[in-house]
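Notes from hallway chat w/ T.B., transcribed later so I don't forget. T.B. wanted the structure written out for a chain they're using in a teaching module, and asked if we could keep both sequence and C-alpha cells in one place. Agreed to drop them here.
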Amino acid sequence: MVRDLGLRLKPEDVAKVDASVHPPFTDLRTVQTLVEQERIPVALGAQHCHDHDRGAFTGEVSPQMLARLGVGYVVVGHSERRQLFGMTDEMVASTLRAVVRHEMTPICCVGETAEEREAGHTEQRLSAQVRAALTGLPPEEVAGMVVAYEPIWAIGTGNAATAVDAEDACRFIRGVVAEVAGDEAAGSIRIQYGGSVKADNAAELMAEPDVDGLLVGGASLEAGSFLDILRAAAGCYRS
C-alpha cells in the first residue's frame, strides 16, 4: 500500500497537510526504509506502545524502540486498546507522556460508546478522557499534540458521525483543552475526527472549523482511497 501510495502521491497533495502512515509493528522497519529510500512525503507512525522505556514486559514495544526507528507519531488510547485490552485513562496518560519523553507526537484518542451517547454522557466522557490525558503537562507540550475524536459507535460500522456531530465534539474538546492548558495551547493543538472516514465524507468533515484532520482506518488500506482523502483534506486547508 505504501509503495503504491508513493507512486501516486504528488508533492502538491501534501504541500498543505501533514500525513502519516501507521503500519503494524512488524512492518515498521520495512515501511521506514521504503519511505526514506523512495522519499515518500509521509511521516512514519505507530499504532501503540508501552509506557515504560525498558523492563521485563514480554511482548511489548517500548517508545524508545519506536524512536530509534524514526517514528514520528504514536496513536495512544485507541478505542480498541481501551475496550479490548483494558487500557484505562491512567494508562493512556502514562503512555502519552512516554511518547512525548522520546520526542514523538502522540495522537490521543478519545470517544464515547453508543450507550454513553444515548444516555447523553458524550461531553462527560470526553471531558474525563481529555483531562486525564493532559492535566499537568506544560502548555507548550500540549500545543504540539494531536487529539483524535473517534466515536466508538462509528468506528468500522460505516455509520460515520455527521459533520455537525464531529464539529460539536471537536469544539467541545478544544474548550476542555483551553481549561486544562490555556487558550494558546487550545488554538495550536490539532483535533482530528476518526470513524468511518471515507473519500466521500472527508471534505465535508474537514470543512468544519474545529476539525483539523482525519484519523483514517479501513479506507487507508487502499492507496487510491487514502489519496482521495488526502486530497479532500488538502482542498479544505485553512491557513
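Follow-up for T.B.: The two ends are 30 Å apart (CA to CA). Might be a good example for the class.
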